[in-house]
Amino acid sequence: MKAPPDDFAGRVVRWQRTHGRSGLPWQATRDPYRVWLSEIMLQQTQVATVLGYYQRFLERFPDVRALAAAPQDDVLALWSGLGYYSRARNLHRCAQAVVDTHGGEFPRSAQVLQTLPGIGRSTAAAVASFCFGERVAILDGNVKRVLSRVLAFGDDLASSASERRLWDLAQALVPAQGEDMPAYTQGLMDLGATVCLARAPSCLVCPVREACAAQRAGEADRYPVRTRKLKRTAQSLWLLQARRGDGAVWLEKRPQTGVWAGLYCLPVFDSAQSLEDTLPARVPRQALAPFVHVLTHKDLHLHPVVAQLDVLAPPGPGDWFGAGDWPGLGLPAPIRKLLEQA
Ligand code: SF4
């Protein structure tokens, strides 16, 4: 591993101010509510997708108190389609904690921000550096890639001890002046998103190429090192699409843990037989083509069955919802698609 030149941070800051991304709605503010909201939305989701959601969230919940006071169903409904719903549940819990424990003001230090629901070390650092100029390092997936290349950091990031070492190195690189922190933090994010890409990094136009040990050795592809791959699992679920004569569909609230926690959903069964057992014998039913829905660590093999009936002995608490209600409900993306296709 090599030490970068002293002005690594300066290069990032100067480049960000002239060539980095600007003009995104969350970049024009130091309001921690807005910055935090964008950071949570941008985890696992592309900027282009986040833009519309961010706008709608701010219209409906203009500040942390409005979000904290909203019913969870309203938050999940607005989040519907962004995926990774634990983010939305934690977002809501975090807003409530900010109001209940911190008087409606976000804490100003990354250390305290990290104690809030859904705020990890890197997100806490992003909020503290963007909004309060705290000299604290971020280390999300993109930044791990950039820094492990710049430093030729060859330790296996699957090990938490290695990751802690990289955190320490990242912290040692931050600018001396807090006023440079927003541009530095944004600059690292921009480098990871637009220049130092996972495949085929654009080293020729990279502002830190002279400071980059991996580039000098012609080995950018070697970093980051991570041996352990996430194990994927698969699960089969049967979905009962019970339709009343007027087109309304029976939907149930999912439990607060597990797949699609807290969302409205068609009744879910773990076998075709258990779904069959719920239906009266003479009810007409039709199995639709099964399909796969991919979650982060799991492939869901979904088997929808449509049944026409006006009365259902439901497996869980729920209600009939007509097509006019669906847009206002927090529904998993594949369920929304199924309903809209019918
Ligand atoms: Fe990444 Fe290449 Fe820049 Fe190094 S020089 S940080 S490998 S883009």
CA-based shape? elongated
Rg: 24 Å
The molecules bound to the chains, other than polymers, are: iron/sulfur cluster
Poorly predicted sequence stretches spanning 5 or more consecutive residues: none
Q: Helical residue percent?
A: 40-55%
Q: Report the sheet-strand fraction.
A: 5-15%
Characterize the structure shown.
With 342 residues, this protein is α+β, with helices and mostly antiparallel strands. The chain is built from 14 helices and eight strands. It has helices at residues 8-19, 32-42, 47-60, 64-69, 72-79, 86-102, 110-113, 121-132, 141-150, 160-173, 181-195, 213-216, 272-278, 333-341, and strands at residues 233-243, 249-253, 264-265, 268-269, 285-287, 291-294, 298-308, 318-321. The strands form two sheets. Strands 1, 4, 5, 6 and 7 form a five-stranded mixed beta sheet that branches. Helix 1 (8-19) packs across helix 11, helix 8 (121-132) packs across helix 11 and helix 9 packs across helix 11. The N and C termini lie far apart (57 Å). The model has no long low-confidence stretch (mean pLDDT 92). Iron/sulfur cluster (SF4) binds at residues 146, 149-150, 195-196, 201-203, 206, 208-209, 212, 214-215, 220.
List the helices and strands and how they pair.
Layout: H1 8-19, H2 32-42, H3 47-60, H4 64-69, H5 72-79, H6 86-102, H7 110-113, H8 121-132, H9 141-150, H10 160-173, H11 181-195, H12 213-216, E1 233-243, E2 249-253, E3 264-265, E4 268-269, H13 272-278, E5 285-287, E6 291-294, E7 298-308, E8 318-321, H14 333-341
Parallel strand pairs: 1-7
Antiparallel strand pairs: 1-4, 2-3, 2-8, 5-7, 6-7
Bound molecules: iron/sulfur cluster.
Iron/sulfur cluster binds next to α9 and α12.
